[in-house]
Amino acid sequence: xxxxxxxxxxxxxxxxxxxxxxxxxxxxxxxxxxxxxxxxxxxxxxxxxxxxxxxxxxxxxxxxxxxxxxxxxxxxxxxxxxxxxxxxxxxxxxxxxxxxxxxxxxxxxxxxxxxxxxxxxxxxxxxxxxxxxxxxxxxxxxxxxxxxxxxxxxxxxxxxxxxxxxxxxxxxxxxxxxxxxxxxxxxxxxxxxxxxxxxxxxxxxxxxxxxxxxx
Length: 215
Hints:
By secondary structure, this protein is mostly helical. 67% of the residues lie in helices and 0% in strands.
């Protein structure tokens, strides 16, 4: 008996299969036939939902983006977590490479897929500042931060970090990266009106260790 599934369920089934195959065989090593066999559907059914293998990749990126921002929003809304810890947890949630197959992220970062990379960057630059700004506003109410521009501060932070700490755009040695991280936290403290050293926990999370304090 032929099994007919709801369109959204079938679409997700195709995406789940593609995600697994891309991770195991690589994007280039996975054919549409592989996906068809994995899901057990006809070619016409696949093309009803997706125009091509690249279209499937785009849909996976959208799904990862939604999960990433959803996780960040959930953390930001949890008032039981202290403000600075919440900022750190949001930063960790935004490490999208931990949420899907490494092959997907490697594929996105290939030169020929600059458009996919740009798509992820657009999601981050437009979706993350409002989430972080809400936490900053709470910090202002609690007397932790002092800035008349919570959203703009977070926009500056997100644009800088998504560009400078993106290995595709800026190549940094370990020493240079540590220096950029120290400078980033130094300036973030000033943007938010925090006393020197008040946000060093963030640098540790981003990979800078204790960074050796700053004046």
